[in-house]
C-alpha cells in the first residue's frame, strides 16, 4: 500500500517535470518581457536584475495596442454574438423538425467543418457585398466560419432537452422570436457558454483572415499588430515578449475561467464518434 | 401544423444566408475564377481553361513541392500528436492528484494563437542565443546546434515540432474524455483473468478509444492541410521553398497580384482536403464496424 503511494508521488513529480516542456517557453516570455533590451537579447531564463515594467507602457504606445485591443475585442465579441444567436435559432429548428430538407441542411452546414476557405474569392465576395476592409465584413465573415461548429454543438445539446419543455411554454402564447429567446434560449445556457468560449478564442486568435481582408492598419486586431510590431522591432525582444503577453492575456483569462465549458465542447462528439 | 407554429422554418434563414454568402459562395466561384487569368494589372478577365491547374501539376516544380510539403506536414504532425496525446492521456488518467492542473498546463498551447506561438519559437530557435541552443550547450551537445529554421535539413522538422508541441495537449483532452467512458469492470475482470498491462491496453483501451482516435486523426489532418500562421511567421516558406505549403503559396501568389493562380491553388487545397477527409472517414469507420 505504501509503495504504491510512493510510486504515485514519483510519477506525479515526473509528469510535472515533463510539463516543463510546455511551461518553460512561457517563463522565457515572462522574465524577458521585464528586462532591458540587452538583457532580453541574451534570451536566458534568469530573473531580471531590475524589473522594467515600463516595457509594457512602451509597447502599448509604440505598437498602437489600445486601438488594436479594442478592434480585437469588438470583432471577437460581435462575431461571437452573431454566431451564437444565428446558430442557436437554426439548430433549434433543425433539431426539432427533422424533415428531409432539414436533415440535408444540417449536413450542408457540417460541410463547413472540413472545407477550407478560398481566401481570394472570399475577398471577391466581400467586394460584391461592399463589405471589404470593414468591421462589419470581418464580423460577418467570422460569423459564417464559426457557424458550422456552433450549429453542431447546439444541435447535439438541443436533442437532449425534452420537447415538452418548449412545447408547454410556447403553447401559453409565446411564439416566434420572443418565445424562443424568452423560453428556449435560457434552457441552452450550458452549451451557450461553451460556444461563446470557443468562438471568442478562435476569433481573437485569427491571423490569416485579417491579413487578407483588413488593409487599414486602424482596424487591425492584436494578431496583425503584433506581427507588424515584430517586423519593425526584431531586435527588441523585451518589447516583443511584452506584446506577446498582452496579446494572449484575454485568452488566458477566458481559458482559466471557462475551461470547463471549453473542454466539454471540444470533446462533444468525440466520445460518441 | 402544430410544429410549424412552434418551430418556424424561417429561424434557419439568417444562419443559412450568412453561410451561403460568405462560405459557400466563395468556394463555388473559386472553381470559376481558378480557370481565369484574373490578376492585378489586367482589367480584362479572360477564360484560360485549365492553364493554372496545368501549371501547378506540370509547369513549375515548386507547386508540386508545396503539395508534397503540405501532405508531409499534415501526416507527420498528425501521427506524432495522436501518439503523444495518447501517452499524455494515459499518464494523466492514472489517478494523479494534480491531474486537473496538469491537464490545464498541457492543453494551454492549443488555445493560444498559432501566430504568437510562432513568435515565441522564433526566439527559441535563434541559432546562437535561443533557448534550444543554450540547452544543448548546457548538456554538452553543442555539436548538435544549428540554424534550425534556416538549415535546409532542419527547417521542416523544426516547424513540425512546434505544431506537435502546440496541439498534442488537444489530442490528450479528447483521449481523456474517451478514457472516461471505458467501463472499469472490464479492467477488473481482466485483472482476475491475469491479463498483463499490455494486453489490457490492446484488448480494452485501444478498441474503446476508436472514436477518439478517429476524431483526432480527421481534425488534425484537416488542420494540417490548412496550415498557414505557424509557417508564415517561422520561415515564410523558406529556406528556398523547403517549408512552403499550399496556403503560404496562395498568399504569395495573391501578394504578387496573380489572383487567378492563387484561387486555383485554393481549389487544389479544397479538393485535396475533401478527398482525404472522405477517405480517412471511410477507413476509420470500417475499422469501428469491425470492432463492434
Approximately how much helix is present in the residues of chain A?
over 70%
Give the overall shape of chain B, derived from the CA principal axes.
globular
Question: What is the makeup of the main sheet of chain B?
Answer: none
What integer value in Å does the Rg of chain B equal? 24 Å
Q: Which regions of chain A contain 5 or more consecutive residues with pLDDT less than 50?
A: none
- CATH architectural group of the largest domain in chain A: Orthogonal Bundle
Distance between the termini of chain B: 41 Å
Q: Please name the fourth-level CATH homologous superfamily of the largest domain in chain A.
A: MetI-like
Biggest sheet features of chain A:
none
Q: What does this protein structure show overall?
A:
- The complex is a heterodimer of chains A (273) and B (292).
- Chain A has 273 residues and is mostly helical.
- Chain A has 13 helices and no strands.
- In chain B, 72% of the residues lie in helices and 0% in strands.
- Chain B has a single domain, classed as Orthogonal Bundle (MetI-like fold), CATH 1.10.3720.10.
- The chains are: A mainly alpha (273), B mainly alpha (292).
- Chains A and B meet through helix 1, helix 4, helix 5, helix 6 and helix 7 of A and helix 1, helix 2, helix 5, helix 6 and helix 8 of B.
